[in-house]
User: Fold this.
Amino acid sequence: MTNDEPDPQDHDCAVDRVDAGVEIIEPRDVPLGGPRAMTVRRTLPSRQRSLIGPFCFADHYGPDAVSASGGMDVPPHPHTGLQTVTWLFEGRVLHQDAVGSVQEVRPGQLNLMTAGHGICHSEEGTVRRFPDQDTLHGVQLWTALPEATRHGERAFEHVADVPTVTVDGAEVQVFMGSLGGVTSPARADTPLVAAQVDVPAGAHVRLPLEPAFEHGVLLDVGNLTVAGHHVASAELAYLAPGRDHVELAAGAAGARLVLLGGAPFTEDILMWWNFVGRSHEEIVAARDEWQAAVRGEAHGVARFGQVTGYPGPPLPAPELPHVRLRPRSRL
Assistant:
């Protein structure tokens, strides 16, 4: 998924000390691609926090009536220095990329794309692609790649069956990292975890955590308290490192949430639009080469590749601000 904000902000994400406790991050609405667009609810990056572990971007969307909004229709667009993590609750999305992947993803399956030095892809969850699709509902996450792998080759993987474990009656689908004694086969370049947790009505769940990790609990639906703090739908509850578990309590309707987290990311990163880099110069170079790829110029295509199956042109980059992209604190 692309960041469709017309004036994307830069984010420099350094690791600072945080106090123990629960911090609630409220979402902001971002339209995805035009006046009739599907709206996503974004909690990362936010004014309070830019990273949770390596996770630097979190969009939550739906349940969206595809026939009314048009669904998700994101033309070919670039990424650098990150992984895109696609996880659905309802519906289907077709992913196509410069590696040559053409992969539909459904609920309970993972699409994971590693940008490395550069990649482009498209995403479609529309009536045009899926005439019988009524609803689209899920999350899109990005992880920042560390220095050791961020200049590497682009790659894509699809995990059709993620491992599942039951914890105090809650079903836990671990789509990245390890939790509750099970481990996802998906690539992870830094220590991390991501899982869907379905908590039954009225249940109290003691969910094990890695104490070295910081975590976020993103509530999809239902009524939930996290470590005694009420969390509303689409809000993200931040948990600082040092916990070996978290207490989750669901209301009468139960709750569905996504747990994400990892070891605090120790590198400063600069985010702008769909690029994760380390400096102003890197971002400018990535934008210039993507614009060259949009024009079909060889050096741009060499960096980002091409998507051949999307019925339309690639998405041009927005204009850079007329000032140097400046570092921004993690908090």
Remarks:
- The two ends are 24 Å apart (CA to CA).
